[in-house]
Design a protein that fits this description.
Blueprint: E1 6-9, H1 15-24, E2 30-35, H2 38-50, E3 54-59, H3 65-78, E4 83-86, H4 101-119, H5 123-129, E5 133-137, H6 150-171, E6 176-182, H7 203-215, E7 220-223, H8 225-236, H9 239-246
Parallel strand pairs: 1-2, 1-4, 2-3, 4-5, 5-6, 6-7
Helix pairs in contact: 1-2, 1-7, 3-4, 4-6
Length: 253
């Protein structure tokens, strides 16, 4: 969608979500922003208002399906949402051991259930209007599971494949779906990584790439290209060969 006027972004208090909010903020734009950190979200909202945007915020965890649905449908009832960017996500290391069940479930709850909770309340309304765009935040980590990040890779893979299928389902109703697959982007999430992150880029540049891809209606917005190419290749090579390659790769701590 080239000119969305009402944009709903989850996880807008930092990282890519914050950068996207600031990228879209302008006179005539209404931003609906959610996050879990009240102080950081308020700062983002103030900066967006300084750029002329009308901003509405709320502190809601995307795993709270009922509360999130009630809030977003109330906002959609005021002014219809043009674009939803289901961006909120979390990651965690294993401390060199095996990921716990509690951690795995928490990551899936935010990264997968949180995406579903963010988009599904709006799908019937967008279909009825015959317009709208849905963007799902996946990752280049979705193309092949990596040791030390099992739940993160698995949850992002589910988001990517789900979004790709949903795109085919909603296209005939006039609703676009795009899946975003970033590589390493400067954020609170990547700040804790203790391994080399090739082609690490700042969040503002990532937001520009994402916004351009969404404006063009791309089904997949994946970047940077070198990391994307390697990630895609790891996903199609024989598993045994990839296991040998990744055995030498650094693990998420």
């Amino acid at each position: 969608m080239r000119d969305p006027r009402v944009i709903f972004i989850t996880g807008a208090s930092s990282g890519i979500g914050e950068a996207l909010a600031l990228s879209y903020a302008a006179t005539g734009i209404r931003l609906l922003l959610t996050g879990r950190d009240e102080g950081r979200l308020a700062q983002v909202a103030d900066r967006c208002r300084e750029q002329g945007a009308d901003v509405v915020t709320t502190i809601i965890d995307v795993t709270d399906r009922v509360a999130l649905a009630e809030w977003i449908m109330a906002r959609d009832g005021e002014v219809p949402v043009d674009l939803v960017i289901a961006n909120a996500g979390i990651s965690a290391g294993t401390g060199g051991g095996v990921e716990t069940e509690a951690q795995a479930r928490a990551i899936f709850a935010t990264n997968l259930d949180g995406v579903l909770n963010s988009i599904h309340p709006l799908i019937p309304a967008m279909v009825a209007r015959g317009r709208g765009q849905i963007a799902l935040m996946s990752s280049l980590a979705s193309f092949r599971g990596m040791a030390g990040a099992a739940a993160y890779c698995g949850s992002k893979a589910a988001v990517r494949v789900y979004g790709e299928a949903l795109r085919g389902d909603l296209a005939r109703h006039g609703v676009g779906v795009s899946v975003i697959c970033p590589g390493f982007v400067v954020s609170r999430m990547t700040a804790v990584n203790r391994f080399p992150m090739p082609f690490l880029m700042d969040a503002d540049r990532a937001a520009r790439i994402i916004r351009r891809g969404l404006a063009l209606g791309k089904g997949r917005v994946a970047f940077p290209f070198p990391t994307y190419a390697v990630s895609w290749l790891l996903g199609v090579l024989p598993p045994g060969l990839v296991d040998m390659i990744l055995a030498r790769a650094p693990r998420k701590g």
